[in-house]
Design a protein that fits this description.
By secondary structure, the protein is of the alpha+beta class. About 30% of the residues lie in helices and about 25% in strands. The chain contains eight helices and 18 strands.
Length: about 325
């Protein structure tokens, strides 16, 4: 029996966005994934005799057990599209019968949506990180330019007045930021730092349009130019749809407005929609809330790689590797 603190939230989002994301490449069917931990939470695999410490992203199969210590909680996303919050001093055995996995009292909330998502393209993996070989390809291309564009890059954006940021490995007296559309140059601005807020005297960007931008670093005798990077604005229809889905997700977590599961869900939704910068923000929060878990750093590493920030991708994957090694020692 689950304790009186157990609550259930039905949502197809989190299963498809997080659960499918982390499904093991095994014959056994993964039935649940841990998406939130507070305190001491333990897992016992069906073929093992001892419990071990759980972390965000842990996959659960038929017969696996999860228990919480006193003053501890865990949130599980099940393959029957439900989220179970396991309260303090509770225990649950994952059942292979998905229709009866959760048969207990509790509050039930529904999210109305026709969108099903999967993050497997970014986060699915056959085995945990064991060495630095996974970062070899990133390191081979890292540091090719003295100016690396950070944001917005290779992403959709949900604003018509974005800020721009970049890094530089050289000593420059100033920078020239140039924005283009397929019609030509939109505007050009000079700044001294590595960030530019959208110019106040410029018109908003157009909805549903792709843009390109680059940065030139100025020295006394030369100019160093970055490569061109692309981003696109949402169409009005997509913007409305995303706003509605965001509202649905947040409504389901009104009693936990800053939970790990909420940020996991939002991050998964944004990633599926191509809003990589927004997904980064959410998974950074997941990582902060689950500081001992390797998986959020792998998610962040994949996202940073997708937007071309190789240095940050390596940094996050290194953190994931360090945490993974710590769990096996």
């Amino acid at each position: 029996m689950l304790s009186k603190y157990l609550s259930i939230v039905l949502t197809p989002f989190l299963f498809f966005a997080i659960f499918n994301l982390l499904i093991a490449q095994q014959n056994a069917k993964c039935l649940a994934v841990i998406t939130g931990i507070n305190g001491d939470v333990l897992i016992k695999k069906v073929n093992e005799t001892e419990f071990f410490k759980a972390s965000w992203g842990a996959q659960l199969f038929n017969g696996d057990q999860v228990k919480t210590a006193s003053n501890s909680e865990a949130t599980l996303a099940f393959s029957n599209n439900s989220i179970v919050k396991l309260g303090t001093g509770s225990q649950i055995t994952v059942s292979g019968d998905e229709t009866s996995t959760v048969k207990t009292g509790g509050s039930v909330k529904n999210i109305s949506t026709g969108t099903m998502m999967s993050l497997s393209a970014v986060l699915s993996k056959k085995e945990p990180l064991k060495d630095e070989g996974a970062m070899g390809d990133l390191r081979s291309v890292s540091g090719e330019s003295l100016i690396d564009l950070y944001a917005p890059v290779n992403t959709l954006i949900n604003t018509l007045r974005p800020s721009f940021s970049w890094s530089s490995k050289g000593s420059f007296s100033g920078y020239i930021v140039t924005l283009y559309s397929n019609k030509g140059e939109v505007w050009k601005k000079k700044v001294t730092g590595n960030q530019l807020n959208y110019p106040e005297n410029e018109k908003d960007l157009e909805s549903g349009v792709s843009y390109f931008w680059n940065v030139e670093g100025e020295t006394v005798i030369d100019i160093e130019k970055s490569g061109n990077k692309k981003f696109s604005t949402l169409s009005p229809e997509r913007k409305k749809e995303i706003a509605e889905q965001e509202n649905n997700i947040r409504k389901a977590f009104m009693d936990e407005p800053e939970s790990s599961s909420l940020h996991s869900l939002l991050g998964s939704y944004y990633l599926n929609q191509g809003l990589f910068q927004d997904a980064l923000t959410e998974f950074q929060k997941v990582s902060e809330m689950n500081s001992d878990a390797p998986m959020p750093h792998e998610v962040l590493g994949s996202l940073y790689s997708s937007i071309g920030n190789k240095d940050k991708a390596i940094e996050e994957l290194q953190k994931a590797l360090t945490l993974s090694k710590g769990k096996t020692n």
